[in-house]
């Protein structure tokens, strides 16, 4: 039986089994050298495969002793050893090994690593480029985002000194080079003062320019240095599409200048302002918006402002993937009005009304029920009727507005949206349900009273 050198007869040990391929390869190499090149076996120990060739060995030795060219014999021997060793190394490789021409060449393989496939570079480059674009967007836009902290002047139980007691915080963004900062009205309404912190951690007191509670918008001003004022780039929201990538920058839970990413997941939503009036055409996004993000910018993939993050729909108070932002097209008109006049003047009919959810309890399923018509108002002059009590205490319902210039009015939300398209002093036609009949009434719109 052919055995690896040094192995006793009987069952092979585990190490011997692993060495068997190397032994067979070495023996095959030696035989190759002997048969093809005429060189003796390189192993000084008895080679089992040569035992049947003793006669040829003796003849070869005789020929070698009588040879007149000893150097040729040495060259043949060396060639046999080299070729045999190479063949042995190849045959000794495990069948499952990765075939690489550089793998078994010692330190040379360390200096010449096998390159990865070409498609790995393409995939890596694509990921890195996308990340690089996001990083550049954040670095370019974050100087325009500010942290707003509100406070109340008061005394603590341990001191009689007037102190600034923190009330809340939120986000905002720089609107123009004059240092105007835009945020949500609900961010500042609980405080008697506010401070603005910029990207470089410099802090400035905020001056209130004006606010529009019906749209949840407020404008502040800070006296920062010119080189610290970086107005945000403004886009437009009219052409937004569901699925567009958006970014939100703000200060959630006080963690300043945090970035989140998402998409436009809905358009044309309606939400209620702090006064209860509807804000229309709101953007819905799944970008993470949490407490502290209010007033911060919602950006498109080019880093332009498309909305102001305002509220979330959540049972826990934290992000649930449903956030809302006031669109830039709405913001632009409100902010410009606040900067110019310090207030927003809107056209109104000049009546008080009953909320549609309460009106349904009285059987009014559609339209806006008029509760009161102020004396000497344009509404009274037009002949509109309010709700009152009869001689015996019975409720006599007033007019129910069902149409404004042809636009159907189902609730107060429809009425506000219709009025947003009008101007102060404009004459509009109302159709009202009065008893069992529908009456047409013309009203000149009045200016809303400042809040």
UniProtKB/TrEMBL annotation:
Belongs to the peptidase S1C family. It holds the Pfam family PDZ_2. The keyword Transferase does not apply. InterPro entries: Chloro_Bact_Ser_Proteases, DEGP1/8_PDZ_dom, PDZ, PDZ_sf, Peptidase_S1_PA, Peptidase_S1_PA_chymotrypsin, Peptidase_S1C. Keywords: Hydrolase, Protease. One of its GO terms (molecular function) is serine-type endopeptidase activity. Residues 338-436 form the PDZ domain. This is Protease Do-like 1, chloroplastic. CDD domains: cpPDZ_AtDEGP1-like. GO terms for biological process: proteolysis. Signal peptide: none annotated.
